[in-house]
Structure formats: structure tokens, C-alpha cells
Amino acid sequence: MRPSYDVIVIGCGHAGSEAAAASANLGCKTLLVGLNLDSIAWMPCNPAIGGPAKSHLVKEIDALGGIMGLAADATYLQLKTLNLSRGPAVHSLRAQSDKHEYSEWVRNYLQSLPNLSFYQAMITEIMVIKDEVIGVKTALGEEIKAKSVIITSGTFLQGKVFTGKQSHSAGRASEPAAIGLTASLKQYGFELGRLKTGTPARIDKRTINFDILEEYPADNKLSFFSFLPNRPVRKQISCYATRSTSLTHQIIKDNLFESPMYSGLIEGIGPRYCPSIEDKVVRFADKESHLFFLEPEGKNTNEIYLQGCSTSLPINIQWQIVNSLPGLERAEIIRPAYAVEYDFLRPIQFKHSLESKLIKGLFAAGQLLGTSGYEEAASQGFMAGINAAKCVQGKEALILKRSESYIGTLLDDLVIKEITEPYRMMTSRSEHRLHLRQDNADRRLTPIGREIGLVDDYRWKCFEEKLNKFDSGMEFLKSKRIKANEKTNHLLEEAGQSILKKDQALTLAEIWSRPSSNFDLIKKLEPNLPEDLLEFEIETEIKYAGYITRQDSQVEKLNTLDNKQIPDSFDYQKLNHISSEAREKLTRIKPQTIGQASKIDGVRSADINVLLISLAASGKH
User: Fold this and answer.
1) N- to C-terminal Cα distance for the chain?
2) Closest to 344 measured CA to CA, from 430, 250, 268
3) What is the domain-level CATH number for residue 588?
4) Which terminus of the chain, N or C, has fewer Cβ atoms within 10 Å?
5) Dmax over Cα atoms in the chain, in whole Å?
6) Considering the entire predicted model, what is its pTM?
7) 594 lies in which domain range?
8) Does residue 519 fall inside a structural domain?
9) Is 555 part of a structural domain of the chain?
10) 384 and 245 in a common domain
């Protein structure tokens, strides 16, 4: 007899995998349902994890006790830290991954969880009684009961794949679309839209002339996503780059009428920050060329991913484009490029916990909520898994503030701001990015992960040891004073620093805080530094201290607004002295706090003042 479950997760991509792991690890009897259980945590697009802002998300997932960072560290082909010429706040780690090993690692991890079961099926209906979810129904008519359901269907909901003017129903190449669930969601009053994404052709490595391409080697010094020690050291592989030519651009211009995007066959809106090559040529007509990276898909495959060259043009045109690129004149396509259009749920219909505002116990995450990227999907899935478990257990939801995490920023943007295109996380989206660095994600979030039960004893022990090293190192640097003398001033002058005046003394921390100071100078001034000094983390904290103090005061003000609750029953239509646009958006989005209301596009500071006065007058605030 079919058992019932605490939590059912629909979809086994990056969002579904994190959701299932979080729910199961929190003690809930969980069922992971996928259309194809052979493609758990698959990478249908770029076989990479991390990059600008996305690495922050991965490290935050890891700090809280999630799995993406561990999987990326176990299966990398190349590790590279980006933006090193800029400040630490925007440093970002990126891993070129072996997509086959990555999927296998996640599948093996999930299979090791005693509370997690698997089922291959198409879910066509959400079962609801009195606005509360009770389970799901499969395409075979089977009913599976659950106290909570998380939908993470990615690009599969009514998915349609395009190559030129040819199209067919699919969630991605060679995999069926999810049919029927859209109608079920609409039945309960959900509003859906259409989005589009795409992927480039895969090229046979043996047919590429790498001798004339620019090489991008891995970093010599390894960095990892997980904060756990003893990460695996693997042989790394170089990536390469080529550029489009005037011939490439002419081929595309001559065949734009063949593109389903430009011929009107695709109605969904594509990602602005990851445009197709057709879009690049049209929108950036003044650019003579565009950069494409050639990235391996695995160590045991000849397939090369042509990053930056996604397209939905016909296959014969794809061959012409590929062969117009330097180094690829004789290259052969293994898998054609394509675009996929799919249904998504407008995220303003969900709370910060990712629970639906319409149906209790129903959660959603990932591309289904209008985002793009594995990391954004995994972050949402992780939080949905936590909060679905808490919902089942009768506990308060975990809501991460935007002032304490990139995950909080992502979720806040999704449920407060109206998404009209696939949302991608960027450092510029966070007003707290000086504080929310990838290097301090564990200090910010691991105590939260421990409190909710996802950080085990081993990780907590590692965290406490690191924290003690950090604290003792900071204490030493702030207490050790360097006095003015001939040797000290010589070293300072040699480093381009201003010298100390007679009888003047500065702490090592004060000297290190100077813009041009570095660790080498500190070592010369004090050869007897503590062993295992956390050089990068401490230097970053010291140099950012002034900025962080100012930002903390801004965070405190924002937290004050976030602590001012708005009752669910509040009637915004009675606010006669605010704009009609603000009234309409506040009514539709139903923010839970004044802080959330202040971030809604179209709601002015004057409108917030009226709202505050009205709440005070009604005695509800």
C-alpha cells in the first residue's frame, strides 16, 4: 500500500535536490518525485557552479548545511576565483564541473538519507482540501498523500523546445515536458506566465584547433566552496576562448527571420543578462566581436560547451556559426543548441518562506518562480525544504533577511518585486554586499544552520575551531603595538607607508587597515605572528571595518522597518492619500512588514509615511 509522506518534492533538479535533502535531514519523511530519476541535479546548460554573486549563494547554502558546495568541490574540473583585481566583496569562486560526476555525487548523497524515498512519475494535480494541500496525483491516476508539497519543476511545466521554426513538447532536450500541472494550479487561482531560456551547441573536442585559442588555466592556489576542511585535490583542466567574427555576425543577421524569437514563435521573455547570440548581435550592433568560452563537460567526454553562444537558430545555421569562429573552422557539433519556453508561477503569490499565499503547505522554488541559474534554484529549494519541514512540524518558518545573506536578498526580491524576466543574482542587487562576502558566509550563517538542525557536530566543531583562530588572531593584532623606531620606519617607508612620529605607537591592526598595507608588511613588523593566522579573512575584516560600521547603522534602520508588522487583514484600499499604483501593488503583494512594503516598485517614501500613520491610528502598529 502506498505510504503517505510529510513532504513531497516535485522535480529532481538543483532546487528539488536541495529541498529533498533539507527536508529529510530535518527529520521529515520525504518523497522526491522526478520525471527522470537518472538526471538528478543535472546540468542541462553550463556545466559550472559559482561565478559573480552566485558563489556567495553556494557558500551560504554550505554554511547553513546544504549540499551544493560539497558536490561542486567533489567534482570540479577547474577552480578559478574571479574579480581578484577588485575588492573582496565581489571576489567570486567559479568551478567548471564534471556534469556526470556532479549528478552522480548528488544522487549518491540523497540515496544515503534514511528519510528520503524516490519515485519516477509525472505529477498532474495538486490535491487540496479547504485551501490546504493534502497530496498529489500522478498521470497514472495514483494519489500520494502528504502534509506539504514543494514544486520545483524547472523549465518542464508546459515546456516547449525550439530549434529554428521546428518545435516540440519537452522540458529540455530528449526529456518530456510536465503536462497537466499548469491546469491544476490555475484551478486554485494561481497566475502563471511564460519565460524562455536557451543553451549553446556542444562541440566535439577532437575537431577544435586549440593551438590558436587563448588558454584560461586554473588557479594554482585552490579555493573551495565548502567551509569544511580537507576538500579533494583533483587534476585540473584548462578552458579556452574564441571570438565571433564579422562573418559570424553576418550569418546571424542574414538568418534572423529563421529565429523563433524574432519570428514571434516564442512569446516568453528570455534572460537579459545571458542573451542568445542573436540578441547580442542585434542589441550590441556596435561591437565587433563577442567572447565565447570553450569549457569541458567532463573528464571522460569529448563534449565542449560553447559558453556565450546560446541560440535557437536552425541546425544548418548553427553549423555555419560554429565554423565561422577562429579555431572552430572544422569543428563538429555533437548536440545542437535550442531554446525552451516554459510556464512559471509569478513569485509575488508566495511568502518569504516560499509557501503559497493561496494554499497552506504548498511551496515552490527554482526556475518555476522565475529565476535563472543552478545556484539561485538551489538556494530557493534549500529554503523551501527547510520551511516545508517546519510547516509540517508546526514550527516558525526560517526567514533570512537581505541584510544577513544573499539568499535573503534573492527571496526578498522575488516575492516583493514583480519579475518580468528570468532573475539572476548579482552583487549589485545587495545593498549590504560589503558585509555579505563569500569569505564570511560561515560566520554569518553557520550558527543559524546549527540552531535549525542542519549543521552536524563535525561541521560545528570545524566552525568553532576556525572562529577561535579568527578571534584570537584579531585580538593579537589589535593588542600588539608597534612603536616608532628606525627599523619600523624603514619598513614602513619601504612599503610606501607614512612613518611613525617619535613616541607614536600603532597596533598591527591599525597599520594593516591602511589602504596600501599588506600581509607581507605585517610579517616584517612582527615576525612572531600566531600560527594558522586566517590571513585573508582577517585582512578583509580589518580593511572593511569602517565601511562595515557605517553599513551596520543602515542595516539597523532597515531592521527597524522590518520589525514593524502589517496585519494580513489590512485594507490598503482605504489609504486615500497614496497613489493608486501604490494601493494596487500593496493590495496584490500583501507585504508582511513596513520594510517589505518600502521595497515594492512604485511605492514611494510618502506612501510609506501614510501607511505608518494609518497603522498607528488604527492601533494595529
Assistant:
1) 51
2) 268
3) 1.10.150.570
4) N
5) 86
6) 0.91
7) 564-617
8) yes
9) no
10) no
Domain count for the chain, please give it.
Answer: 4
Q: What CATH number corresponds to the domain at position 261?
A: 2.40.30.260
* 163: amino acid identity, one letter: T
Instruction: Determine whether 486 is exposed, middle or buried from the number of CB atoms within 10 Å of its CB (0-12, 13-18, 19+).
Output: exposed
Cα Rg of the chain (Å, integer): 26
Q: Which residue, of 422, 454, 486, is where some domain finishes? A: 454
* Minimum mean pLDDT range among 305-309, 317-321, 590-594: 590-594
C-alpha cell at 164: 529554428
Cβ(47)–Cβ(96) below 8 Å: yes
- 121 and 184 share one domain: yes
pLDDT tens for 530-567 read 888 888 899 888 888 877 777 777 667 666 777 788 88
177 with 259, same domain? no
Q: Is 398 helix (H, G, I), strand (E, B) or coil?
A: coil
Helix (H) or strand (E) holding 151: strand 143-151
For residue 133, the Cα-to-chain-centroid distance in whole angstroms is: 28
Q: Is the dihedral of CA 453, 564, 570, 189 positive or negative?
A: negative
Rounded Cα distance between 16 and 28, Å, is 15
User: Comparing 614 with 288, which gets the higher pLDDT?
Assistant: 288
Per-residue model confidence as pLDDT tens digits over 331-385: 999 999 999 999 999 999 999 999 999 999 999 999 999 999 999 999 999 999 9
CA–CA separation, 43 and 156 (whole Å): 14
Ramachandran angles phi, psi of 280, nearest 5°: -60, -45
C-alpha pair distances (Å), 472 with each of 443, 480, 514, 533, 543: 15, 12, 21, 9, 18
CATH value at residue 83: 3.50.50.60
As beta bridge partners, residue 193 has 344
Distance of CA 333 to the CA centre of its chain: 30
Residues 133 and 89 grouped into a single domain: yes
Report the candidate in 385, 401, 405, 381 with the shortest Cα–Cα distance to residue 393: 385
Give the H or E element holding residue 199: strand 192-199
Do both 159 and 238 map to the same domain?
no
What DSSP designation does 157 have?
B
Q: 181 and 46 in one domain?
A: yes
- Gap between the Cα atoms of 448 and 84, Å rounded: 29
The dihedral through the CA atoms of 512, 80, 366, 10 has a sign that is negative
Residue 373 lies in a domain: yes
With a CB cutoff of 8 Å and minimum separation 6, the contacts of 569 are: none
Q: Which of 237, 341, 295 is nearest to 48 (CA)?
A: 295
Q: Decide which of 454, 488, 513 is a domain's last residue.
A: 454
Q: What backbone torsions phi and psi does residue 203 show, to the nearest 5 degrees?
A: -110, 145
Q: Is residue 553 part of a domain?
A: no
Q: Are residues 299 and 357 in the same domain?
A: no
Give CA–CA dist 226/249, Å, rounded: 41
C-alpha cell at 380: 530557493
Q: What is the pLDDT of residues 191-237, one digit of tens each?
A: 999 999 999 999 999 999 999 999 999 999 899 999 999 999 999 99
